Amino acid sequence: MTDHPVTELRLVVTADDYEEALRFYRDVLGLSERAAFSGPDGRVTILDAGRATLEIADPAHAAFVDRVEVGRRVAGHVRVAFEVPDSAEATRRLAGAGAEVIAEPTRTPWNSLNARLEGPAGLQLTLFSDLE
């Protein structure tokens, strides 16, 4: 066994509108396509999001992040965060492609610029850019 027995984190999202979700996350957000499979039992596309981490937060911290980014508690138990070079530009681009902006980019206490959106398949997204 290696020091890190897990070699990849894969978040699997079931999207009622598969084409719209694929267009949004691949073509607009810019996640590159790693693989795609289709057959009589359906379709799946695996998008590469770069480095992955799993962030575990207790309810108090999750509520704190929501207050900082949005001003109130809005996220469910899963929120997907993407680090992007310019969160303000990415927010405009994703909003133009149909994402609902929940909160415009806001400077956080941890010195990043974070925006909150709802994207296809009901995913709540944080877009963040480090300001350091």
Automatic annotation (TrEMBL):
It comes from the Bacteria. GO terms for molecular function: lyase activity. Pfam families: Glyoxalase (PF00903). Residues 7-130 form the VOC domain. PROSITE patterns: VOC. Keywords: Lyase. The keyword Lyase applies. This is Lyase.
